[in-house]
């Protein structure tokens, strides 16, 4: 697995602090150790610590007082990750939406071409990614399987230039997938709907239904765009 596919260091730090807050190890009003001590404690750079604290502050879970330190603002068992997702969307909203516009253009065409050109091996590869999405409860594996599904369709279009172009912004695709999956996995109904969208695209490609595959991919990405919009309200 490449470094682009690994969980970001600051996200791991946030999860560790979250665990300590919900477990009552860190309590409201308590001052966190200095950045250098936190860096040693978690075995990471001070830059990663600083980024984690910045996002926690934006999410209103800590207060950074210049010259005084960082203090816990709450010990309630809130869903910190949901708050951070909202912050990430607000701070990088333009990039996410522009990426979705690009995905809408390129991936819908990939789906159309894949329906016309996919080999038996291509179809099997797409099917495996769909099975991986269906059969895992692990968040990271699910995100990777979702990304692999879209990359497999790009490869199945059998246009090397198009496949390389899409591969070049795979990390950005992963970001949009990561954000929307956190929302979609919040209920079994959302999960089933997500899986059905992917399954319908796969069936259209496997049947050689080019126009339908294109439309289904467009609908899928437009749905993602709508959900991102709702998350930022």
What does this structure look like?
The protein has 233 residues and is mainly alpha-helical. The protein has two domains: 3-80, Winged helix-like DNA-binding domain superfamily/Winged helix DNA-binding domain (Arc Repressor Mutant, subunit A, Orthogonal Bundle); 92-231, GntR ligand-binding domain-like (Four Helix Bundle (Hemerythrin (Met), subunit A)), CATH 1.20.120. It has helices at 9-22, 35-42, 46-58, 80-91, 93-117, 120-134, 139-156, 160-168, 170-184, 188-206, 210-231; strands at 62-65, 69-72. It has a two-stranded antiparallel sheet with strand order 1-2. Helix 5 (93-117) packs across helix 7 (139-156) and helix 6 (120-134) runs antiparallel to helix 7. The radius of gyration is 20 Å and the shape is elongated. The two termini are 35 Å apart.
At the fourth level of CATH, the homologous superfamily of the largest domain is GntR ligand-binding domain-like
Which strands sit side by side, in order, in the main sheet? 1-2
Order of helices and strands: HHHEEHHHHHHHH
Mean pLDDT: 81
What's the CATH topology label of the largest domain? Four Helix Bundle (Hemerythrin (Met), subunit A)
- Binned, the helix content reads over 70%
From the coordinates shown, what is the CATH architecture of the largest domain?
A: Up-down Bundle
List the domain count as a whole number.
2
What class, by secondary structure content? mainly alpha
What is the number of helical segments per DSSP (H or I, 4+ residues)? 11
The global form is elongated
Radius of gyration: 20 Å
Strand content: under 5%
Largest sheet: 2 strands, antiparallel
């Amino acid at each position: 697995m490449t470094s682009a596919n690994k969980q970001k260091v600051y996200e791991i730090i946030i999860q560790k602090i979250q665990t300590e807050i919900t477990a009552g190890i860190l309590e409201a009003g308590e001052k966190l150790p200095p950045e250098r001590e936190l860096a040693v404690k978690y075995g990471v750079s001070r830059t990663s610590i600083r980024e984690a604290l910045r996002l926690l502050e934006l999410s209103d879970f800590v207060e950074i007082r210049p010259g005084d330190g960082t203090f816990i603002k709450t010990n309630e068992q809130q869903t910190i990750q949901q708050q951070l997702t909202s912050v990430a969307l607000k701070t990088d909203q333009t990039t996410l939406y522009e990426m979705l516009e690009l995905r809408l253009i390129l991936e819908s065409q990939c789906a159309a071409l894949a329906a016309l050109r996919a080999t038996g091996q291509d179809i099997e590869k797409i099917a495996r990614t769909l099975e991986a999405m269906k059969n895992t409860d692990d968040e990271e594996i699910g995100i990777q399987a979702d990304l692999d599904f879209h990359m497999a369709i790009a490869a199945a279009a059998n246009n090397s230039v198009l496949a390389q172009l899409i591969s070049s912004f795979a990390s950005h695709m992963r970001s949009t997938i990561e954000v929307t999956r956190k929302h979609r996995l919040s209920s079994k109904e959302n999960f089933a709907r997500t899986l059905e969208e992917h399954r319908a695209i796969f069936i259209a490609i496997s049947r050689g239904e080019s126009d339908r595959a294109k439309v289904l991919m467009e609908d899928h990405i437009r749905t993602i765009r709508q959900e991102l919009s709702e998350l930022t309200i």
